[in-house]
Amino acid sequence: MDSHLAAVEQALIAMRRSQSRRALAELAVPAFDVLDVVETAERTGTQATVSSVASALHVDQPRASKLVTSAVDSGLVSRVADKADGRRVLLVRTPRGRATSAELHRARQAACASAMDGWTDEERVAFAELLTRFVSVFGAR
């Protein structure tokens, strides 16, 4: 096995474990996952639904429905009727959801900045480019 692949695998494992224990743990609320999916849909001009949440989070429809209900109950997301198809329900961020998204971005970026403290600008640029490239391929599988 390629030692670089093993190193990447171990880094992913370590990152997941550290997120569940420390810096980003308080940001790992299931309703926030839904909020991220809805924000991405809004940013890309697509429509967020319970089905799109299920697909994005790799969960089944009943689990996605529970997650969406949690986000709605938290006041982060609201359900609205699709004007083109009244049987379909779309998800949109509420004003509180937009404010929470902004705060999540600030907190996540602060955690990343702390982790990259002491890195050169060139290292940050290279890491951002390579990680983005890796995730775009890795996440598509």
UniProtKB/TrEMBL annotation:
Question: What's the protein name?
Answer: HTH marR-type domain-containing protein
GO biological process: one example: response to stress
Pfam families in the record: MarR_2
> What is a single molecular function from GO for this protein?
DNA-binding transcription factor activity
Q: Which segments constitute the HTH marR-type domain?
A: 1-136
- Origin superkingdom: Bacteria
Q: Which InterPro entries does the record cross-reference, listed alphabetically?
A: HTH_MarR-typ, MarR/SlyA-like, WH-like_DNA-bd_sf, WH_DNA-bd_sf
